[in-house]
Amino acid sequence: MTDIDGPKVVLITGPPGSMKSSFVYMLMSKYLEKTGNFGLYATLEETAASHLQNMESLGMKVSPNMQISDFTDLREDNENIDYLKFTQKMIGHFKQSRGDGFTVFAFDSLGALYSLMEHEEHMRKKMYHFFKALREAGLTAFVIMERNPDGTSHLLGNEGFLSDGIIFLGLKRKQGRLVRFMQIEKMRATRHSMEMHAIEVRNGELAVLGPIFDQ
Fold first, then answer.
1. Mean pLDDT score, 110-133
2. 147 half-sphere exposure, CB direction, 13 A CA radius
């Protein structure tokens, strides 16, 4: 696989237990450690403290160049807030303070967002403009989305069509045990394998073990 050059919006999809949040955090942490750039991780799923505790339980170090912002207080105090606009304002704030050093962003997750936007119409248009704003900010953005093993990469806003890339994280039974795997289904302007690759967390590092072949 060649490098992913931004700006891009990449969906990270998969069922519960496939380590979507951990995968994105590891990916961002390694990138920020290597480049010294700044990253923002926005979560609707849990508090920042809980997220960091989960990452530390896997042996991962807290990245000093990453800001984790959770929306839990916002959810309790503001019933009618537009979370997409709020997220864009937050990105604008960090773009002002960090400039071109702010290069990577994560949103966790679309399912949680849609649960707060009941009866919303024209979702495809809203997601088109949201993804467009992420690209215009010059970001490589990872958007986490729950997905059944046999499901498609689309929820309410045809996100699979609008995104630049789709990485599927799944679970596969092999030789009597469940193996986590990663599969790149789509990545515009990037040469990549379509095979399933087994992955494993080892001492806080994400190891890619190699292709999974059906017997």
1. 84
2. 25
User: Does 3 fall in a domain?
Assistant: no
Select the more confidently predicted residue: 61 or 139: 139
Range of the domain at 203: 8-211
Is the residue at 132 inside a domain?
A: yes
**SS3 of the chain:** CCCCCCCEEEEEEECCCCCHHHHHHHHHHHHHHHHCCEEEEEECCCCHHHHHHHHHHCCCCCCCCEEEEECHHHHHHCCCCCHHHHHHHHHHHHHHHHHHHEEEEEEECHHHHHHCCCCCCCHHHHHHHHHHHHHHCCCEEEEEEECCCCCCCCCCCCHHHHCCEEEEEEEEEECCEEEEEEEEEEECCCCCCCCCEEEEEECCEEEEEEECCCC
The amino acid at residue 84 is: L
- Is residue 2 in a domain? no
Domain CATH for 89: 3.40.50.300
Q: Which long-range contacts (CB under 8 A, 24 or more apart) does 72-77 make?
A: 72/46, 72/47, 75/44, 75/116
In this prediction, what percent of the chain has a pLDDT beyond 90?
50
The structural domain count of the chain equals: 1
pLDDT on residue 176: 73
- 1 falls in which pLDDT band (50, 70, 90)? very low
Tokens at residue 175, please?
Answer: 């030789």
* Token output for 13: 């999809």
Half-sphere exposure of residue 49: CA atoms within 13 angstroms, side-chain side:
2
